Amino acid sequence: MKTFEARLGRFVIKYSIPLILLSLLVVAGTGYGTRFLTFSSNSRMFFSEDNPELQAFNALEQTYTKFENVFFTIAPKSKNVFTRDVLGAVQDLTEKSWKMPYSSRVDSITNYQHTKVEGDDLIVEDLVENAEQLTDEQLQEVRDIALNEPLLKGRLISLSGHVTGVNVNVIKPDENGKVSDTISEAAYALQAEMQRKYPQLDIYVTGVVMIDTTFEQATEEDITLLVPIMCGLLLLILAICLRSALGMGLTFLVIVFSTLTGLGLAGWLGIPMNPASANAPTIILTLAVADSVHILTTMFHQMRNGLDRHQAIEHSIRINFQPVLVTSLTTAVGFLTMNFSDAPPFRDLGNVVAMGIIAAFFYSVLLLPALAAILPLKAAKSSPSISPSSYIYERLADFIVRRRTAIFWTMIIMIIGATTGISRIQLDDDFVKFFSPHFDFRRATDFTAENLTGMYMIDWDLNSGGEGGVNEPEYQHTIEAFADWFRRQKYVCHVYTFTDIMKQINRNMHDNDPVYYRLPEERNLAAQYLLLYEMNLPFGLDLNDRINIDKSASRMTVSLVGASTREMRELEVAGRGWLKENAPPSMYTQGSGVTMMFAHLSERNIKSMLSSSLFALGLISIIMVIVLRSVKLGLLSLIPNIAPAFMGFGVWGYAVGQVGLAVSVLIAMTMGIVVDDTVHFLSKYQRGRTEQAMSPEDAIRFAFRTVAAPMWISTVTLVGGFIVLACSGFQINAHMGSMTAITISFALLLDFFFLPVLLLQFDRSAPSAPSISSVPAQTD
Question: What is the pTM of this model?
Answer without folding.
Answer: 0.81
